[in-house]
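Marked as duplicate of an earlier ticket. Keeping the data here for the record.
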Amino acid sequence: MFNKLKQFKDLRSRAKQIQDTLGKESVEGSSGWGKVKVQMNGNQQVTSVSIDQSLLNDKQHLEKLVSEAVNDAIQKVQKVMSSKLKDIGGLDLASEFGDALKK
């Protein structure tokens, strides 16, 4: 019983470490030849959005470009996440905490 509690504590600690590491990463997604830019951290939180003044008159086009920039940032941050997880050993729940996760 106490062993399983320790394993869960270790799991939470490891997950927090990974989250902190990813939170320090930053990527930029863009669209419309750089007229729309979205900054996102490694935890997939948008930290800033930049929109060129020339796009403010066409709402529909702007919405499309913002969507494309966000999707671009998500793809980039997923690559960063994958790389960082490999670098710090990842979070292989099945092999490391398999016993604790069983009912």
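See parent ticket for discussion. The CA atoms of residues 40 and 47 lie 5 Å apart.
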